[in-house]
Amino acid sequence: MVTRRRVLAAGIAAGSAGLTGASLVPLLSARAAEATEAPATGTPLAIELFKVPMPLIPVARPVSTAGGVDTYEVTTRKVTKEIVPGIQTELLTYDGQFPGATIKARKNRPVRIVQRNGLDIPISRHLHGASVPQDSDGDPMDTIEPGGKRVYTYPNKQPHASLWYHDHAHHVESENVYRGLQGSYLISDCTEDALPLPKGRYDVLIQLRDADFDPTGQLLYAMSDRSRNTLLVNGAPYPYFQVAARKYRLRFANTSNMRFFELRLADGSDMIQIGSDGGLLPRPNTTKSVYLSSGERADVVIDFSRYPVGTQVVLQNTGGRGPVEQVGQVMRFDVTHTADDPSSVPSVLRTLPPLPTPTGSRTIVMRMDEDGRPDPQAYMDEKLYDPERIDASVRYGASEIWTVTNTNVKAPHNFHMHLVQFRVIERNGNAPGPAESGLKDTVVLQPGETVKLQATFDTYTGDYVYHCHMLDHSAMGMMATMRIR
Fold this sequence. Notes:
This protein is mostly beta strands. It has helices at 4-13, 25-28, 173-178, 190-193, 324-327, 471-475, and strands spanning 70-82, 88-94, 100-106, 111-117, 125-128, 149-154, 161-167, 182-188, 203-211, 230-233, 236-237, 240-245, 247-254, 261-265, 271-276, 279-287, 290-292, 297-303, 312-317, 329-338, 360-368, 378-380, 392-394, 399-406, 413-417, 422-427, 439-440, 442-445, 450-456, 462-468, 479-484.
């Protein structure tokens, strides 16, 4: 296993300029040297809208359930698969799946992942949104070398939540996730089970992301690429999804590196948001749109019984950059038949415990270079990520208020903490809206915005990172380490 100390020692031997994240670029992957190159040019692929069915992401099956622990064996490997119809695209995958198979976990039932690295680059598997011991967190510097193996243990002591897993090897996490190293992880519990929400085939995971293809159908990658104008849903471009005229629970996850989505139905109909990053909201939120920055999740209920059979309804994206015909339409729902519907959305979904009295506070400033320089960097509190530096020392059991500000004029960011789900208590001096009323692990900050959040550190001790989850920004240095002790 490649450890922090080994990588740092190699950096010193290589004569690096300083002990910063930037100095580690040549050590982790030669690909990072290409990060500022412009994407290849050529005639873009012509992809027709709504011509392929939306794939349903397969559910992973454990190789063992002995001792009340679900054990999975997973290998990262390079494969070619059809994304654009008729064209094979090279991908980095977990077990050949794009996206990776969904792991369904249960509160208080541990999951054990035996992760093998079949790639020629280091990887680090991170379970985004999970409360796990430090040695299973997937620290950016705690990597698995090519041909190596690592066991991750997830206790699943936290409440129900729609989490996701992805690569986190520093400086290459952005490209690795973009090329396919990500999948979903759903924790369920009795609180969620007891509700009459849509279940079974009517509870559907929908992963959203963007991509940029060259004329031969291969994924193009460049750091901070603004030309990723093909939208993928569960790995397919602009699919259609056949639904019954009844209620569906749709678990949206934005697994893009950089793109934000504002999702709405083309006919302006209501959606009911029932969940966010850390599980169900206290109460449902009827809304016309759902906004997701990179890494955020939202569960919504859409009632298709209001449409006659034969209706086609487009899910639009009104919050992204790029041509409307390419990024303004996401997928299409086709109402094809009727079905019984015993489900409902209750007026109360869960009761969150009251926030404890804060024991401390701190401020965090996020900024990146946006003056047009050829090698921009990104900073947390005006510092580049240094894996040997502890940026915040937190007492175990503390409940702190963190005031996070994006000081950029043009660039948006978002803020993600490992280990904890937090509560948003203030946005720009005002109470948060209903979409941010639940548990969160990732929160958006538009240019000039300030968000106050409260996090309680009472699960595990150790070193954990916090960073911008626009992965290109964290790969550029916008990441820091907190030590809970």
